């Protein structure tokens, strides 16, 4: 067995569906097994997997065991030369798995490899490459100094802001959203630490791999989409607190040299400072939205009509029709245009082709772009999303067969009549 793909899932049925469809394509021609460990979801995830992806080895837990413990259930059963720990809210290209296997084969010193990740808006995710969160680095990260000095080798060591994101680097930490592991390294390192329930297990495991004498690599030759990378907002207090707890576990485990109380105090101060900023940000955001709503309501009567926002659907004719049906069923008022996936489409009613997408978005009041995953390859979708990351548009993906449309913060499906 060349590869074991391991996906831990909890109440993300539609993300998981899209993820599995992309993994299925990427696994073609590879001796590969796929595990899904469901942590007691209530959204029909298990039924979706068992009926839609019968080749997947499903482990259905009766309680939420956490990320590390659930991964360990599959790691113990996996037989691949390599193991991929993959988040369910990812979308990978057709060549992703093959490229990673080739990279690991040619880098015998690699214990783990991570790739370039972009979020649902096409923006590069800095957690694609990270440094070791020693006490000082953790303090800079939690306090927010990392974001004030994004290119600093000192203050942004957490995200290695001084390293070129387009080049291969040996790094300290690989993201748990996509962690490509050598089985030999897993045997020597042991299983991920189940003390980390939600955050920090990838940091701990990456560091333990380094301590076994392996290297961790950041490999930008592969680019994937990680939807939820943008949903864990930096101003979210729960995230700050949970991240702080994970950092304390990590520091206590690896840097407990008698100064733990002092380090813990410093991290506490950073957390309170960051939490204060979070509260202030939320307050100012609410005030701004209230003022904007009032300002809009005053101007609205003067406008006479609401400005139409257009949606472009990147698809062939059949897929365009199906996606449009979903939008109409969901009550979307948006005007829709079709963008072809081929250069020489004979349809004279199209707005253009995928090859001039940026130009189309410039002057057509486009508010939303929907890619159809069943009508174009995943790698092309990921590259296109990345290429329009500077456009102020909502980016969404329709599933194969156009069953639903998904984005980082929403799922739209065709309404059915109640029986």
Per-chain topology:
Elements: E1 3-9, H1 13-26, E2 32-38, H2 45-52, E3 57-60, H3 67-75, E4 82-86, E5 90-91, H4 96-106, E6 110-118, H5 135-143, H6 145-148, E7 169-171, E8 178-182, H7 183-189, H8 201-211, E9 215-226, H9 237-254, H10 260-303, E10 310-314, H11 317-329, E11 335-340, E12 352-353, H12 357-362, E13 366-372, H13 378-387, E14 394-398, E15 404-407, E16 410-413
Parallel strand pairs: 1-2, 1-4, 2-3, 6-9, 10-11, 10-13, 11-12, 13-14
Antiparallel strand pairs: 4-8, 5-9, 6-8, 7-9, 14-15, 15-16
Q: What helical percentage do the residues reach?
A: 25-40%
Query: What is the rounded distance between the termini?
Result: 47 Å
Unreliable parts: 229-235, 302-306
Helix/strand/pairing class, anyone? alpha/beta
Q: What is the alpha-carbon Rg in Å?
A: 23 Å
- Number of DSSP-assigned strands: 16
Residue-averaged pLDDT? 87
- Percent strand equals 15-25%
> SSE order in H/E notation?
EHEHEHEEHEHHEEHHEHHEHEEHEHEEE
The number of helical elements comes to 13
Shape type: globular
What about the largest sheet? Answer: 9 strands, mixed
């Amino acid at each position: 067995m060349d590869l074991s793909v391991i996906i831990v899932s909890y109440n993300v049925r539609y993300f998981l569906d899209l993820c599995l469809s992309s993994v299925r394509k990427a696994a073609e021609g590879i001796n590969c097994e796929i595990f899904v460990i469901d942590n007691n979801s209530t959204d029909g995830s298990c039924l979706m997997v068992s009926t839609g992806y019968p080749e997947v080895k499903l482990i259905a837990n009766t309680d939420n065991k956490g990320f590390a413990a659930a991964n360990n259930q599959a790691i113990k059963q996996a037989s691949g030369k390599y193991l991929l720990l993959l988040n369910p809210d990812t979308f990978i290209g057709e060549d992703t798995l093959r490229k990673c296997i080739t990279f690991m084969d040619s880098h015998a010193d690699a214990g783990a490899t991570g790739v370039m990740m972009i979020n649902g808006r096409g923006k590069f995710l800095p957690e694609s490459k990270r440094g070791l969160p020693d006490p000082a680095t953790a303090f800079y990260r939690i306090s927010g100094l990392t974001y004030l000095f994004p290119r600093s080798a000192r203050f942004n060591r957490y995200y290695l802001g001084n390293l070129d994101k387009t080049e291969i680097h040996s790094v300290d930490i690989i993201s748990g959203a996509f962690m490509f592991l050598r089985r030999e390294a897993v045997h020597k390192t042991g299983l991920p630490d189940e003390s980390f329930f939600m955050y920090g297990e990838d940091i701990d495991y990456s560091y333990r791999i380094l301590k076994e004498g392996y290297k961790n690599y950041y490999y930008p030759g592969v680019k994937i989409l990680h939807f939820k990378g943008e949903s864990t907002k930096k101003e979210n207090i729960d995230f700050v607190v949970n991240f702080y707890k994970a950092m304390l576990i990590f520091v206590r485990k690896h840097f407990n040299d008698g100064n733990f109380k002092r380090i813990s105090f410093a991290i506490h101060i950073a957390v309170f400072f960051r939490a204060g900023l979070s509260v202030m940000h939320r307050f100012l955001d609410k005030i701004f939205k209230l003022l904007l709503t009032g300002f809009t309501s005053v101007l609205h009567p003067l406008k006479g009509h609401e400005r139409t926002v257009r949606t472009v659907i990147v698809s062939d004719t059949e897929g365009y029709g199906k996606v449009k049906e979903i939008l109409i069923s969901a009550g979307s008022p948006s005007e829709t245009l079709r963008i072809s996936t081929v250069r020489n489409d004979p349809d004279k009613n199209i707005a253009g082709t995928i090859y001039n997408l940026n130009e189309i978005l410039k002057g057509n009041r486009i508010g939303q772009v929907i890619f159809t995953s069943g009508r174009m390859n995943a790698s092309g979708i990921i590259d296109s999303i990345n290429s329009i990351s500077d456009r102020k548009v909502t980016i969404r993906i329709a599933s194969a067969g156009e069953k639903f449309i998904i984005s980082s913060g929403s799922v739209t499906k065709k309404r059915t009549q109640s029986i």
